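Backbone-to-sequence.
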């Protein structure tokens, strides 16, 4: 129970902390990685370099401060953080380390303004939030371990098969190294991989959505090779160095982007490699249900498009259809024959989807694609409760596009 005095101090200092939120979280992470370099094995250091994770943490703390006397408002946020933490095998023992460094970050940025009373109040508030997260994470861990083939923490999985899906995306089929059955998961969920990459100073942990039906005896991930300056560390290593027989350290399937239990039609909208969780949903829906399904796949062109065979296979079932959009079609890609629409997803294409307004919609892809999709769904009057999406990075607010 947080004391009334703490609530008062936290609420009154929250705007100041919000103003300096990113500076505080930057200072926090800097301290954390100096004092606990082992934390680099868990945190995505690219999110640190790009500043996305400090921003997300700053927002989470500020939101918490605003609602400190109505914690029930945080329910949804707590669940998605807890699911992410569980995938990464975060333990209760790590919380004091984060707490100490966060408070030190507050002290460093606010200087003399961080009086012992203020720091004490924030320490109490942090502990209360930590208790909520630890409690929820423990429940999830226990629930998972109770299930057949469930486990806690990371386990060794062996690469059964490596399949090139397109010039950009390669799939890895995984089974437990000790021969135990794979853990249960819901289509749409993800795992974490912790990779030991030679000539790098720490391990690299990344989330990957499961891309096949939950009706198989393997877990499948499908990874896009991130090119750029520099090339993506984990995805390049997976593409270039991980072959059949390799052993990978894998966390428990987690996440709350999953199909709702209902019979409504489903519209799946995929941008690029964002198709992976939707592919898992598509394969489950087409194999195990009679629900009407529309898969809208947006890709650059036929070179990078993945899963053509699997999408066509699903369409053999009545009530399943797909729409393929290319925005950088090759000369050899013939409109009307090889693909259905040139350019980005637009209102006319989406409005033509049968049962759109009665459907539950799931989408995933790059941030600009997601913002555009959300705007179109709003314009076309799809109810907010019917809209579900997943970020391939720290969850952010989507800014609607006009
Ligand atoms: C829930 C979830 C599910 C996901 N599912 C999938 C999936 O199914 N398939 C998939 O392919 N990915 C998925 N991802 C993304 C995945 O976790 C990785 O982020 C992705 O593979 C890139 O990791 P990387 O190590 O290869 O690239 P990183 O090394 O993390 O680099 C990422 C990008 O940042 C650029 N970059 C690196 N350093 C800098 C810098 N200093 N400044 C500016 N830019 C820089 C790189 O050029 C690259 O383009 C998912 C993510 C989440 C959170
Ligand atoms: C009260 C305490 C905490 C809060 C409020 C918090 C909040 C968050 C939030 C908002 C995210 C982003 C979720 C998303 O991807 O959408 C996140 C991710 C994460 N958290 Fe926490 N967290 C807390 C404690 C911890 C602890 C103790 C650890 C242990 C090391 C930890 C490790 C991580 C990691 C590794 C990620 C993923 C980072 C990335 O992808 O770059 N967190 N957390």
């Amino acid at each position: 129970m947080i004391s009334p005095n703490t609530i008062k101090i936290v609420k009154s200092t929250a705007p100041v902390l919000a103003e300096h939120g990113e500076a505080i979280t930057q200072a926090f992470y800097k301290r954390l990685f100096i004092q606990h370099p082992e934390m680099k094995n868990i945190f995505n250091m690219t999110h640190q370099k790009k500043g996305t994770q400090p921003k997300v943490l700053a927002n989470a703390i500020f939101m918490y401060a605003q609602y400190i006397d109505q914690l029930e408002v945080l329910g949804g946020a707590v669940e998605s953080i807890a699911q992410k933490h569980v995938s990464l095998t975060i333990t209760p023992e790590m919380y004091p380390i984060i707490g100490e460094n966060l408070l030190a970050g507050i002290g460093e940025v606010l200087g003399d303004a961080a009086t012992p009373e203020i720091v004490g109040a924030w320490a109490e508030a942090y502990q209360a939030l930590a208790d909520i997260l630890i409690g929820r994470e423990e429940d999830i861990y226990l629930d998972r371990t109770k299930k057949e083939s469930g486990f806690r923490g990371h386990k060794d999985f062996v690469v059964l098969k490596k399949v090139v899906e397109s010039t950009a995306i390669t799939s890895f089929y995984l089974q437990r190294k000790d021969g135990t059955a794979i853990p249960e998961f819901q289509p749409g969920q993800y795992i974490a991989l912790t990779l030991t990459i030679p000539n790098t100073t720490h391990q690299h942990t990344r989330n990957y959505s499961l891309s096949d039906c939950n009706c198989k005896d393997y877990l499948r991930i499908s990874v896009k090779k991130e090119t750029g300056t520099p090339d993506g560390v984990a995805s390049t290593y997976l593409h270039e160095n991980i072959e059949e027989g390799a052993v990978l350290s894998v966390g428990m399937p987690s996440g709350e982007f999953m199909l709702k239990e209902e019979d409504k039609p489903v519209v799946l909208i995929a941008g690029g490699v964002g198709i992976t969780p939707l592919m898992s949903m598509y394969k489950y829906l087409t194999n195990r249900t009679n629900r009407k399904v529309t898969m809208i796949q947006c890709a650059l062109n036929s070179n990078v498009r993945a899963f053509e065979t699997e999408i066509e296979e699903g369409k053999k079932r009545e009530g399943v259809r797909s729409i393929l959009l290319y925005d950088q079609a090759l000369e050899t890609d013939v409109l009307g024959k090889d693909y259905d629409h040139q350019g980005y997803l637009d209102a006319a294409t989406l409005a033509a989807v049968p049962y759109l307004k009665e459907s539950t919609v799931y989408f995933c892809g790059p941030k600009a694609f997601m913002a555009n999709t959300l705007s179109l769904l709003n314009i076309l009057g799809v109810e907010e409760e019917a809209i579900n999406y997943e970020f391939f990075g720290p969850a952010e607010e989507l800014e609607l596009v006009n």
